[in-house]
Amino acid sequence: MYNGDWVDEFIKIKAYEWITGFICGFVSITFNHGVNNACEMALISRRDKRRQGMRWLTRGTDLDGNTANTVQTELIFFTDIEGKEYIFSHVQLRGSIPYIWNQDPDMKWEPKCTIHPSDKLNVDMMAKNFADIKKSYPNACLINLIDKKKTQKEIGMAFEKYHNEVGDPNIKLVWFDFHA
């Protein structure tokens, strides 16, 4: 619950009638009728409350392994084919690259990046982030969408290096340079 911190005292005293949970996100549910069947689709995006911030000001992880600006998006697809019901779901997490780094905004197109100098600390933060992801998703594929040029390349190379050092076989990494 996005407002969990603010309603914590109400939960402790069991004053549930005073609690209204909410998400910071987006919900859309649509119904489509095709020639042979109908389907319903729901798209739900929920922003994680643990490390929020503006894009250029909040990057990487905190010391608990929580990545900046993480959003979970789920697409749920429901259809009936020849009297049999099918439900499909696809979940995607989007967040900052999971180690300690920042990119202070300036007047340049691509601000300079600073990666924390301790490889051990960065590997530990990435391992914490992976452990958190695996609580809900035992097998995951990380897709790195940044460029392989200049500052972006530096961030991506460190991502690949720390991912390899964590060495978790259930968390795959694919560097997909969509600019190429």
Question: Could you outline the blueprint of secondary structure elements for this entry?
Answer:
Elements: H1 4-12, E1 25-33, E2 38-47, E3 71-81, E4 84-94, E5 101-102, E6 114-115, H2 119-136, E7 140-144, H3 150-166, E8 171-175
Parallel strand pairs: 7-8
Antiparallel strand pairs: 1-2, 2-3, 3-4, 5-6
Summarize it:
The chain has 180 residues and is of the alpha+beta class. 24% of the residues lie in helices and 31% in strands. It is built from 3 helices and 8 strands.
Could you please describe the fold and organization of this structure?
By secondary structure, this protein is of the alpha+beta class. It has one domain (4-175). Helix content is 24%, strand content 31%. It has 3 helices and 8 strands, in the order αββββββαβαβ. The protein has helices at residues 4-12, 119-136, 150-166, and strands spanning 25-33, 38-47, 71-81, 84-94, 101-102, 114-115, 140-144, 171-175. Helix 2 packs across helix 3 (150-166). The longest helix has 18 residues, at 119-136.
